[in-house]
Amino acid sequence: MRRHHLEIGPTFATVIAEDRFVPLAITDITERNRELLGYIADHPDFLHALEPVPVGRNAPPIVRAMARAARRAGVGPMAAVAGAIAESALRAMMAAGAVHALVDNGGDIAMILAEPVTVGIFAGDSPIRDLALRFSPGPRVASVCTSSGTVGHSLSFGCADAATVIAGDAALADAVATALGNSVRSLDPEFIGRGMTPLLATGVDGLLVIAGDRLLTLGNLPERVRMPVDPRRASRQIGGGAA
Questions:
Q1: Residue 20 gets which letter from DSSP?
Q2: What is the dihedral of CA 15, 16, 21, 24, to 10 degrees?
Q3: Distance (Å, rounded) from C-alpha 209 to C-alpha 229?
Q4: Do residues 200 and 175 lie in contact, with contact meaning Cβ atoms separated by under 8 Å?
Q5: What is the overall mean pLDDT for the chain?
Q6: Cβ-based neighbours of 169, under 8 Å, separated by 6 or more
Q7: For residue range 105-150, what is the model confidence (pLDDT) as tens digits?
């Protein structure tokens, strides 16, 4: 089991899996990027929309997955791209027999676990540091996606240092993380809580927000543990990262 760093078109991902499964992830990411870029060439509104957009039944599955997640979260479909590609690559490895594998696509992570994995949450300059979530083994795909208004290059209209979502669907977790980050326009805990409550109804498992010195959670989250989070190991685009 090794860590593999992949740069495939616009995707910068880390794959942790047995070596024999990694080529399947590479092929899948390459194909999903090809399909998505081809769709965008014919439907440029899909790339720039900040609200859900309809897609036809003949759209590629990756496009439909992104659109479906965006509709549930109330955001543009590109908010789900990293999670959707991560889960697609993960499922390609699972179809070949992988029982323990992880795809970290810019801080948006999809994984299937045969042993526990701890995921650190990098929250920039927040005084809340060295926080991590410990995921237990299980047959279900688990995903953890993070958006931020202060760390990385992802578009966010909020001020959260980390807006993290746990779900069994990585595209949905990614889209809801964007919506959660957008909703954090104040450091007031009551304001943040009002934004979190409706997002739990989208079907995700749990939400976590770090904003300044505030930490709020809602729903079912993995065990929180203390672990040094090295920013040099954080994903290129945003604040997640597997340890």
A1: G
A2: -10
A3: 17
A4: no
A5: 90
A6: 69, 83, 87, 141, 143, 203
A7: 988 999 999 999 999 998 878 898 889 999 999 999 999 999 986 5
Nearest to 170 by CA among 57, 56, 94: 94
Tracing tokens 């410990």 back to the chain, one arrives at: 134
Beta bridge partners of 76: none
Q: In which element (H, E) is residue 132 found? A: strand 131-135
**Gap between the Cα atoms of 112 and 87, Å rounded:** 10
Query: Whole-angstrom Cα distance, residue 73 to residue 80?
Result: 10
Q: Which amino acid is at 157?
A: F
Structure tokens at 108: 């948006």
Q: Is 92 left (phi over 0), alpha (psi -120 to 50) or beta?
A: alpha
User: How buried is residue 136: exposed, middle or buried, by Cβ count under 10 Å (0-12/13-18/19+)?
Assistant: exposed
- Write out the two tokens for 90: 């993960």
Hey, what are 99's tokens?
A: 């029982």
Predicted TM-score (pTM) of this structure? 0.90
pLDDT digit string, tens, across residues 139-194: 999 999 999 865 555 555 567 889 999 999 999 999 999 999 999 988 888 989 99
Kindly state the tokens that stand for 50.
């900040």
